[in-house]
C-alpha cells in the first residue's frame, strides 16, 4: 500500500534554502520557461563551485557527502526560480548516480569530477522510434568485436544531445528471445566518437531541444560497458526511479502561477482568488508528497510506486496551472509579447510534454495500479 511519511524539515535545511535564494538573486543570468531554465555552462560551473552538484556523492570524487534532503532543497529552489540548470541536470540527477552504482572505478574517476565541477553535460539515450514506454523493444545493436563493440541504430527524442559531451545508451547486445528483458546493456559514450550524428528535431515552441542521434557502425572500446553485459534492463529501471519524484515534476509552470498572482493582486475586487487558491493548495499537497519520497530515498528505501504517484499528480498539476492561467489571465498567449501573454504562450506550448517525458501518464498509472494490488 502507499506510504507517505511526513517530510523532515530542519533549521539547517531552511538556512540552505535561504542561501540558494540569495545565490539565484545575485547570479542567475536569466529566467526561462525552457526545460530546466535552458543550458548555461557558466552558470553550471558556478553551481559546481558552490558544491551543489554531486552533493551526495563520495568525497573521493569531489562530491559533498551531503544528504538527499539537502540536494532536494537546492534543486527545488533552482527549479522554482527557473534558473538555467539544464547543462548539469542529467549528469547530477541520473548519470552520476548510475555510474556510482554500476560504473567501473575508471569510469567514475574519468567522469564524476567533471560533472561535479559543471564542466560536462550528459544526455539520456533510451527511447527509439516505436520504443519509448516499452524499452524492452529497443532495436539499437551493440555487436561484440575484437576490443569492444560496434553500435548501429538510432536513438530518438534525445534531449540536449547536440550540446552534450556524453550519452548513456541502452542497446541490445544479444538477439531478442521470449525473455524480452534479457540481452540489453548500457554504454557510456563520448558523443565526439566518429560515426555519431545528431539530427535536430524542432519542438512545438520552435526550439531545437531534442534530437535523433544516429550511430553509423560506431566502434566503442570494451570499457564503455556500464555494469554487466545483459543486465541493462534492471539498471535502466533503477535509473528511471531517480527521475520521477523530484521538484522538476511539478514546478515547470510555477513561474506562470507567480506571474498570475502578481497580476491579480493589482486588480482590485478580482473574483479569481478561489481558482488560484485551489492550485496553491494542490501544489502544497504535491510538494509534501515529493518531499516525503525524498525522505524515504534518504533512508535507503525504494519508493517506486510513491514516486510514480508524485509524477502523475505533479505533471497533471503543471498542465492544469497553464489551463487555469489561460482562463484567468485576460490576455491571449503570444510568443512575441512581454509579460503574462508571453509566459502563457511559452508554457502552453510545452505543457503537453509534461505528462510524456520521463514516463507517460498511462504507464505511471499502470505502475501504481500494480503497486496497490489493483492489477
Ligand atoms: C520533451 C521530451 C523530452 C524527451 N527526452 C528524452 C530523452 O532525453 N531521452 C530519451 O530516451 N527519451 C526522451 N523522451 C522520450 C520519452 O521518454 C517518450 O516519449 C516516452 O517514454 C513515451 O514513449 P513514446 O513516445 O514512444 O510513446 P509510446 O510508448 O508509443 O506511447 C504512446 C501512447 O500509448 C500509451 N501507452 C504506451 N504503453 C502503454 C501501456 N503499457 N499501457 C497503457 N498505455 C500505454 C502511452 O501512455 C501514450 O499515450 C522525451 C520525450 C519528450 C516529450
Question: Summed up, what is this model?
Answer:
It contains eleven helices and eight strands. With 375 residues, it is α+β, with helices and mostly antiparallel strands. The longest helix has 26 residues, at 273-298.
Give an overview in words.
By secondary structure, the protein is α+β, with helices and mostly antiparallel strands. It folds into 3 domains: 11-120, Butyryl-Coa Dehydrogenase, subunit A, domain 1, CATH 1.10.540.10; 124-231, Butyryl-CoA Dehydrogenase, subunit A, domain 2; 244-371, Butyryl-CoA Dehydrogenase, subunit A, domain 3 (Up-down Bundle). The protein is 45% helix and 15% strand. It has 11 helices and 8 strands. It has helices spanning 11-27, 41-49, 68-80, 86-102, 105-116, 232-241, 254-266, 273-298, 304-328, 339-354, 361-371, and strands at 122-125, 141-145, 148-156, 166-172, 184-190, 196-202, 208-221, 225-226. The strands form 2 sheets. It has a 4-stranded mixed sheet, with helices on one face. It has a 4-stranded antiparallel sheet with strand order 2-3-7-6, with no helix packed on it. Strand 6 and strand 7 (208-221) form a beta hairpin. Helix 1 runs parallel beside helix 3 (68-80), helix 4 (86-102) packs antiparallel against helix 5 and helix 9 packs antiparallel against helix 10. It starts with 10 loop residues before the first helix and ends with a helix. The model has no long low-confidence stretch (mean pLDDT 94). The structure holds flavin-adenine dinucleotide (FAD). Flavin-adenine dinucleotide binds next to strand 1 and helix 11.
Amino acid at each position: 500500500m502507499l506510504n507517505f511519511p511526513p517530510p523532515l524539515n530542519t533549521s539547517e535545511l531552511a538556512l540552505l534554502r535561504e542561501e540558494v535564494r540569495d545565490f539565484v538573486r545575485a547570479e542567475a543570468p536569466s529566467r526561462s520557461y525552457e526545460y530546466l531554465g535552458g543550458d548555461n555552462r557558466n552558470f553550471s560551473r558556478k553551481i559546481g563551485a558552490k558544491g551543489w552538484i554531486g552533493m551526495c556523492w563520495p568525497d573521493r570524487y569531489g562530491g559533498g557527502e551531503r544528504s538527499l534532503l539537502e540536494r532536494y532543497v537546492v534543486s527545488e529552489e533552482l527549479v522554482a526560480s527557473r534558473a538555467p540548470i539544464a547543462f548539469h541536470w542529467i549528469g547530477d540527477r541520473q548519470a552520476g548516480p548510475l555510474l556510482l552504482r554500476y560504473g567501473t572505478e575508471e569510469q567514475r574517476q574519468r567522469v564524476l569530477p567533471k560533472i561535479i565541477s559543471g564542466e560536462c553535460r550528459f544526455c539520456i539515450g533510451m527511447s527509439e522510434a516505436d520504443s519509448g514506454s516499452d524499452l524492452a523493444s529497443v532495436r539499437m545493436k551493440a555487436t561484440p568485436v575484437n576490443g569492444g563493440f560496434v553500435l548501429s541504430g538510432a536513438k530518438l527524442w534525445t534531449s540536449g544531445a547536440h550540446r552534450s559531451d556524453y550519452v548513456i545508451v541502452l542497446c541490445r547486445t544479444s538477439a531478442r528471445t521470449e525473455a524480452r528483458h534479457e540481452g540489453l546493456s548500457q554504454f557510456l559514450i563520448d558523443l565526439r566518437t566518429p560515426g555519431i550524428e545528431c539530427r535536430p528535431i524542432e519542438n512545438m515552441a520552435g526550439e531545437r531541444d531534442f534530437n535523433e542521434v544516429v550511430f553509423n557502425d560506431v566502434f566503442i572500446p570494451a570499457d564503455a560497458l556500464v555494469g554487466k553485459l545483459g543486465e541493462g534492463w534492471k539498471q535502466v529501471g533503477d535509473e528511471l526511479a531517480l527521475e520521477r519524484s523530484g521538484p522538476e515534476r511539478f514546478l515547470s509552470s510555477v513561474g506562470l502561477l507567480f506571474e498570475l498572482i502578481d497580476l491579480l493582486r493589482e486588480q482590485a475586487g478580482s473574483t479569481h482568488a478561489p481558482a488560484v487558491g485551489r492550485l496553491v493548495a494542490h501544489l502544497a499537497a504535491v510538494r509534501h508528497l515529493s518531499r516525503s519520497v525524498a525522505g524515504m530515498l534518504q533512508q535507503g528505501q525504494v519508493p517506486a510506486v510513491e514516486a510514480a504517484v508524485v509524477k502523475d499528480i505533479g505533471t497533471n498539476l503543471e498542465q492544469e496551472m497553464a489551463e487555469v492561467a489561460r482562463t484567468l489571465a485576460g490576455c491571449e498567449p503570444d510568443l512575441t509579447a512581454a509579460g503574462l501573454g508571453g509566459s502563457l504562450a511559452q508554457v502552453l506550448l510545452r505543457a503537453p510534454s509534461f505528462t510524456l517525458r520521463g514516463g507517460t501518464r498511462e504507464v505511471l498509472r499502470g505502475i501504481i495500479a500494480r503497486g496497490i494490488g489493483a492489477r
